[in-house]
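Supplementary Note 3. Input sequence used for the single-chain structure prediction.
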Amino acid sequence: MANPQKELEKESEQLSFTNGAEASGLEILKAIRNGVPLLDVRAPVEFKEGSLPGAVNLPILNDEERHLIGTCYKQNGQDAAIALGMKLVSGEVKQSRIEGWKKFLGENPNALLYCFRGGLRSKTAQTWLAEAGISVPRVEGGYKKTRQELIKILSDKPQAFRFFIITGTTGCGKTRVLHQLVKSAQANAAAPANLLDLEALANHKGSAFGREIDPQPSQIDFENALALQFMRWEGREQLPLFAEDESRMIGKRVQVDSVYLPLRVGPLLVIEESTESRTTLILEEYLQAPYQERIKRSGKPDQALQDLRAFHLESVKMISKGLGGLRAQQLTTLMNQAFDLTQAKGDWEAHHTWISFVLREYYDPFYLKHLEKEKERIVFKGSRAELFNWIQSNPPENFMRMYECGDFSKVRKLVPHSVLTE
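The predicted structure, written as discrete structure tokens, is reproduced below.
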């Protein structure tokens, strides 16, 4: 099987635009699919709310200038607003912004330019760059039109795929299996399956303790990243799609129906690991690795440990209602005792006590109740290693037959909860 990354790189080299000044809707989608850099000249506040995949924000107007011009437009009309814009962005300010664009385009000569609707801001930036001797295509219809296309892609394309859901108790290593499959595919320069890492796209491990150091992407950016993933899988619908079992919410990001509903009906691949194995994994991924990352960023071990303690104590508060007041207090005590030992002696082993407590008293009962309701969907049970080997040993057509024979295509009566917004 051809290497999909090499195919994308080859296709990217062949990209050309039918209109040198403007990239059409089809051309921009092809460009996004192939990772072509995008220059977003909207204001930072707009970019923060949502942007197109691969975009870098170098605004023609900052937030304050945009606000002033918007107010002027409402009070005095378009001509007055344009005149104010030209006044605010002139002289050194204008030159500084042009230099920023020139630097970006020098590093990314195949980039495209866009604003919100493909209107005055991107046209002005394009004109200023042309005067500086640089030609850059502008996205037809801007961010708004392309966002609408991405919404349609995310609503439609997942329906063509067959989802296989990797599940198991907290800490069993679901994400590790996905990552192992990705590494195996990369090492063999092949793609025997579609591997969807929702937690990576949402930048969150899914549980109350799963927040990452960096913030989550906006809801729109999360959705756009999902749409991009399915765009890159075009023509691969005959391959099974493996995803981790996730709830509707991944942190503060909400899954869209087109992806969430297949997770609720597809075949279940259940990982079974001992409590000891799971507490060790959680210790590594939720405590030791984040601690080392905090040290790497701050260079202050004591502060890193203090921040990590505060982070996990806050997480306990998030589950205290479901855990109950007395057990939440017990968990807090066990956690503080463990962090005290880590601070005093560098000992991490004491954390096994509170980790096993929260698994036994909170996470495992919820999961086992869920699994009992869904037992008819189970097609595999085994350890992480056994699941990995089982997936690797079965060709794609076996999974597709398994899906059809199990009649997993039946749509259950789930309440739609679309979160796609422009």
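The chain has a mean pLDDT of 90. The CA atoms of residues 323 and 361 lie 7 Å apart.
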